[in-house]
From TrEMBL, chain A:
This is Glycosyltransferase family 2 protein. Belongs to the glycosyltransferase 2 family. One of its GO terms (molecular function) is glycosyltransferase activity. It holds the Pfam family Chitin_synth_2. The chain crosses the membrane at residues 12-35, 362-380, 386-406, 426-444. PANTHER family: POLY-BETA-1,6-N-ACETYL-D-GLUCOSAMINE SYNTHASE. It comes from the Bacteria. Signal peptide: none annotated. Keywords: Glycosyltransferase, Membrane, Transferase, Transmembrane, Transmembrane helix. CDD domains: CESA_like.
Automatic annotation (TrEMBL), chain B:
Keywords: DNA-binding, Phosphoprotein, Transcription, Transcription regulation, Two-component regulatory system. One of its GO terms (biological process) is regulation of DNA-templated transcription. This is Response regulator. GO terms for cellular component: cytosol; protein-DNA complex. CDD domains: REC_OmpR (cd17574). Residues 149-264 form the Response regulatory domain. It comes from Cohnella herbarum. One of its GO terms (molecular function) is transcription cis-regulatory region binding. SMART domains: REC.
Length: 466, 267
């Protein structure tokens, strides 16, 4: 028993060292790429591009399920983006409320009979609607089939070579599309997907679908999530995208090449995590077919989203993520991991995701059990344990602060100094319970997965202005 | 909330507008005399009224005195420009002998010399206020020499402010709106001579705004599009909807001014 525990201790130490090393590696890459990004942002001519004929046309796909509260304002603000040529395709996924009715009445839509390419199989579509007064707005009413299915229906109707997926409960900044398009235009042949940056809307002031006053969330849960998002997006995704190992483009806002999405069979329904799934499939498809490609991240294209503000909603969201993540790893990841033909993605991204993200809860739990074992067998040298934990904690804390540094240096969205102080405090508080609970949620999500509990969980909407 | 110029003349403008509408409904025309004068009390008002009555019994005269701006308004039911002018001579004489007159009298007749819109009346009153301290002569107010009013619809605060400042320096009366619905409501209310609009507006987009304005008001060529969009199809759609001109951002303000000038001279 002692030998086993000792062996485990060594293993846990190497595990922690490896995870920290990868964290710092990715963070280093993020920092390195922040400055070129910042220059690009500073000198790009967004205004000029937003009306230019050189910008590729985009189809925005907006899946809507029970969105009667917000749908009107959201579609209105999507119709007024600063972008030369785009269409907005709203897909009603068999809502149980009046989403469809509100859309049809508000925009006086009439049923049309377009010729739709059935490139991806979807649920039965009840009708396509359009109003010549709003020439770039289309509305699809279909039977309930989940978010992925709605996106596929939207892809079938879309006319443009690029598609962008947008959550109906999020707000796009006016020039977000232009900024993302700029990243795409730098390398239009190879860029198969570009992810946008997601920021948290809670406590900000919204007027006419535009975020007017940016404030750090006042409530606990959103504030913690805010710090977590900044760390993941700026400290993580910039780095991952620089080595072309980005595994996820947020479902809330991303742009894809349509023909590639169709080539990999569209979005996969039935499970959450369809945003990660599509990116993994794109990586796989391009690597297997030797297509030079790139999955980019554009941190200055911002989409504002409402974060869950109660324990119940947040836990169901995280359990959903955990379930989706596990499903993706079992379905797709396992075929590609540690295989040199999948390059960075197979040798770095996937091992990192499987070992340090998906399996993290099990290591944590076994670590806890081992601790109890050491204590029972009097093997523990408390000093060593304390030092190890402190080193671990500080390395993570430094990374959080580093992400804040990137935020302030390159984007600096929060105008008030007090907000910055709050962010630092919450970066510290993240380690006192929030991360542990996060691990627990992921574990519960896995349990759900194995029990085949496949509900979407709850998400209660509130109006933007609180 | 758009910033409409709300100085002290709002109230008197609306009041006068109501009188004019009542008068024109009754007898098709309505003459108005504005005179900046000090310290009118009910007694002097009655005297003035009596004098004007005596002069021309066929006219019914109403006098309003706006304390805040020190302007006397005389509304003459059925007054043409000629009869109103004649009545103004009498009024001027009376005010001078009483040492009440502070500036020029301004005479107009609706709808003969101008359409009775809120902008026109506001302009009319402002002119009377501005004339304080000038020689005591009589001027005419007509649409031709009224200030051109411009409505700017653009979601971008900076763009609006920039154009507004520049146009106001050139003597235009400028109103602002930040979305299509607001622009349309303001348009109905003030009937501006020129509308400058972005195509990319929330609620009602630019094309819809142009179309509703054209339906509302068959004046050809009142809308100038000022937009980021440079595609030829945007241009075509804007002209199809009824725009008179199309300017792209980044804008040359002098170009915009020339276009406004040309349009206003045409109508």
């Amino acid at each position: 028993m002692r030998e086993f525990l000792l062996g485990y201790g060594y293993f846990a130490m190497y595990y922690a060292l490896a995870i920290t090393f990868i964290y710092f590696l990715i963070f280093g890459l993020s920092i390195r790429h922040t400055f070129p990004l910042q220059r690009g942002i500073r000198y790009n001519r967004v205004r000029k591009l937003s009306g230019s004929e050189h910008v590729p046309p985009v189809s925005l796909l907006v899946p809507a399920y029970n969105e009667e509260l917000m749908i009107k304002e959201n579609v209105r603000s999507l119709l007024a983006l600063n972008y030369p040529e785009y269409e907005v395709i709203v897909v009603n996924d068999g809502s149980k409320d009046d989403t469809a009715k509100i859309m049809i009445e508000e925009f006086q839509l009439k049923e049309i009979k377009p010729i739709v390419a059935k490139r991806i199989k979807t649920e039965q579509v009840r009708g396509y609607y359009h109003n010549p007064e709003y020439p770039n707005l289309y509305f699809i009413d279909k039977e309930n089939g989940g978010k992925a299915d709605s996106l596929n229906a939207g892809i079938n109707l879309s006319r443009h070579p690029l598609i962008s997926t947008i959550d109906a409960d999020s707000l796009l900044e006016k020039d977000a599309l232009t900024r993302i398009a700029r990243v795409y235009m730098e390398n239009p042949e190879e860029t198969v997907a570009v992810g946008g940056n997601v920021r948290i809307l809670n406590s900000c002031t919204v007027e006419d679908g535009i975020v007017k006053k940016i404030r750090f969330p006042r409530q606990w849960w959103p504030a913690l999530q805010n710090v977590e998002y900044i760390k993941a997006f700026l400290g993580g995704r910039i780095g991952w995208s620089s080595v072309n190992g980005l595994i996820i483009v947020s479902g809330a806002f991303g742009v894809f090449q349509k023909d590639k999405v169709i080539a990999v069979g569209g979005y996969r329904g039935g499970y959450p995590g369809e945003d990660m799934n599509i990116v993994i499939k794109l990586h796989r498809y391009c690597l297997e077919n030797k297509i030079p490609y790139q999955v980019a991240f554009c941190p200055d294209a911002v989409c504002w989203t409402q974060a869950p503000d109660t324990y119940r909603i947040l836990s169901s969201q995280r359990m959903r993520w955990g379930r989706g993540n596990l499903k993706n790893m079992i379905e797709e990841g396992i075929h590609m991991v540690f295989r040199p033909r999948y390059k960075v993605f197979g040798l770095l991204t996937l091992p990192y995701n499987i070992l340090f993200e998906t399996l993290n809860p099990y290591f944590r739990l076994s670590g806890l059990l081992a601790m109890i074992g050491y204590w029972l067998l009097n093997m523990a040298d408390w000093k060593t344990v304390a030092v190890f934990m402190l080193v671990n904690f500080f390395s993570c804390f430094i990374l959080s602060l580093g992400a804040l540094y990137i935020e302030e240096k390159a984007f600096s969205r929060y105008p008030k100094l007090s907000d910055l102080n709050k962010m630092m405090i919450y970066s510290f508080l993240m380690f006192l319970g929030y991360r542990q609970v996060g691990v627990l949620w992921r574990f519960l999500g896995h349990i759900d997965f194995f029990r085949n509990n496949n509900s979407w969980g709850t998400m209660v909407r509130t109006n933007f202005n609180k | 909330m758009a910033i409409v110029i709300r100085n002290g003349i709002q109230e008197i403008t609306l009041q006068l507008l109501q009188y004019i509408h009542v008068a024109t409904a009754k007898s098709a025309t309505c003459g108005v005399i504005l005179a900046p004068c000090a310290n009118m009390n009910p007694k002097t008002l009655d005297q003035a009224k009596g004098l004007m009555r005596k002069n021309d019994a066929s006219l019914s005269v109403q006098l309003i005195y706006d304390d805040a701006n020190q302007v006397l308004c005389a509304v003459l039911d059925g007054g043409t420009l000629g009869t109103t002018h004649y009545a103004s001579l009498v009024l001027k004489d009376f005010l001078q002998t009483q040492h009440l007159l502070l500036g020029q009298l301004i005479v107009s007749s609706f709808p003969e010399s101008a359409k009775p819109t809120e902008t026109a009346i506001a302009d009319f009153i402002q002119r009377a206020i501005r004339s304080k301290g000038n020689d005591d002569d009589i001027h005419f107010f007509t649409a031709a020499n009224a200030e051109t009013s411009v409505l700017i619809a653009d979601p971008d605060d900076l763009v609006r402010e920039f154009i507004k400042i520049r146009l106001e320096l050139k003597g235009y009366l400028v109103y602002e709106a930040k979305d299509g619905q607001e622009a349309y409501d303001l348009f109905v209310q003030i009937m501006p001579d020129i509308v400058i609009t972005e195509l990319n507006l929330p609620i009602l987009d630019g094309y819809q705004l142009i179309r509703t304005i054209q339906r509302q008001d068959s004046h050809e060529g009142k809308v100038i599009v000022l937009t980021d969009r440079q595609l030829s199809e945007n241009r075509n759609r804007a002209y199809e909807s009824g725009a008179a001109d199309y300017v792209t951002k980044p804008l040359s303000i002098s170009e915009l001014e020339w276009k406004i000038k040309r349009l206003t001279e045409n109508h």
